[in-house]
Each structure stands twice: as structure tokens, then as C-alpha cells.
Predict the structure.
Amino acid sequence: MRRSSVIAGIGGYTPDQVITNADLCRRFDTTQEWIVSRTGISTRHRVAPGQSTSDLAVAAAQAALESAVDLGGPAVDLVILATTTPDRPCPATAPLVAARLGLDTIPAFDLSAVCSGFVYALSVADGMIAAGTARRVLVIGADAFTTILNPGDRATATVFGDGAGAMVLRAGEAGEPGALLGFDLGADGNQADLITVAAGGSARPDPREADEADRWFAMRGQAVYRHAVLRMTETARAAMAVAGWQPNEVDRLVAHQANARILTTVGAELEIPPDRVYSNITNVGNTVAASVPLALADAAAAGVLRRGDRVLVSAFGGGTTWGAAAFTWPELAVAARTKGDLP
């Protein structure tokens, strides 16, 4: 019988610095009404000078490890970090995170799928547990995305924030609360320019030779909206089919917190009642790879997720990439999202 992955811990972290809509109104020619009506966001968090993605990842991972139960051995034997903002272009950030967590010389690697990164990483972890390559996996989504935003771009400054979320998986059985039951993943490289940082990679290695706009993150908002709704809906339906669920059997939809309108539309397309669609975007904004695990951590801490709940997650990101997962929720002792001094 195929081994199943079971959720054993969850945790989230956001940096102390809060950027309010009032702050942004002072920077840009905009209003509170304009920001909220288009994004649903009131506040977002930003890393302080000297903070990086590894700092966020370590804090969220510690929270997840502290909440983990029934591991039956050493903490974890593999770390996967989903991020688009590694500490350096080389090497990967995950080994540094593992070292700072005191996890010795276990394997650790980064995975890049932008806002779909955590769902991709969760699927990889599930496959490695099924294959017997690992028994306990720490999966982290973390991004210091404000570090790659154009300081003069109102459209991106109002949407994105920094944060991290982490989940601990262990080998278990499909019938257990917390078992991962179905995945769907996809990608379309023909849409690579919808969400991009054009310069700084091997194709255009010297950003100083690029136009100013190409040195920063950019997205084509209206096109991204259309593709996000379509792909997040399609992939969620596919994951439900793998799990054998109907929409009326889903207790919670916890989708990528892209913007409030996308969340509302995806829920309606899936015929999941609005009161079952969880959102924390108002307080944290779009935290990219951290979005799904941070939302799960916040929902668990608030008592929104209960043992046995059928949970559906769905995401869309640059690449373009998309993915969804279906699982039940376990009994977990989850603290409120951590803030404050970094470890």
C-alpha cells in the first residue's frame, strides 16, 4: 500500500514592519478606496533592512516544528523551500535554513514556482514520502517579495507583502486526519512574460544594461486576473476529482491570496459557499509562495480549521504555473502567527 503524507505541524511568520494603505497614499497618487476596491488589502508586512528570506523561513519553520506532533523520531529528514527571492542567486537558501534550525546535514533544496511554489513543494514532499526517500519533511513557503518591487510602481506596492509559512509532513496512512489525498499541477511557459523580472538571469545577466522597468518585478494585471481565475478553478476541480470530492463536500477553500476579487470569483466558479472560502489577504496582502501556508496557519490558529475538515488549496503563479491539493485537517496545537525578534 502506498504510504500517505500526513500533516503534522503548521506555522507562519510575518515581519514586524507594517505598511498601511495610509502609508501608500502618502507615497503615491492614490486613495484608500482605490486600493481596497481593487485588492481587498488594508495592510501588508515588509522586511526590515538586513532581514532576508531565510530569516522569514526560519521563524515560520520553528513555529511549525513546535506545533508538530507524532513525529516518532528526529524532527525532519528533508527541507524544501519554495521561494522566488532566495538570499543569493547561488547557492540555494534551504541548506542555510536547515543549518540555522540545527538540522545537521539533512538534504535541503529550493523550489521556484512563484505563487504556486508551496503547492508544488508539497507535491514533491508527498512523492518523496511515498517513495520512502523521506519520512518527515519540512515544507516552507517564504518570500521577501518587497525587495524586488519597483519603488515607483503603485500597482505592485499595494498588493505584495513579505512573510513565510511552513508545514511538517510525516509518513502515515490515507485514512488519518491530515492525510494528503490528491494533487493537480500545471504550467504554461508560453505565458512567461505575464509575471516576470525580465533582467538579472542568464538570458540578460547584467541588469545595469537593461531598462529601469526590466530590473524589477512586473505583471500584466488584467491578463493575470483572467488566467488566475481560469487555472485556479480548473486545477481545484482536478484535485477534487482525484480525492473523490464534490464541491459541497469541501469544508474550506484556502486559495492563494492573490487579491480579494480573484478569491471571490474562484469560490463562485467552484460553487463553494462564500462562508467556506477563507481569506487573510486584508492583513497580509499577497505573500507569494508564503500565501497558502500562511493562510492555513492563520486559519488553524483562529479555530477555522477543525479536525476532519476537508480542505482544498489552489494557487496560480508566474511561469505560468498552477496547482491544487486536497487533504483533511488534523488535530494540531497551533499558536497565533509569530512576529517580533527573529531567532
Remarks:
- The longest strand covers residues 4-13.
- The mean pLDDT is 93.
- Residues 221-243 form the longest helix (23 residues).
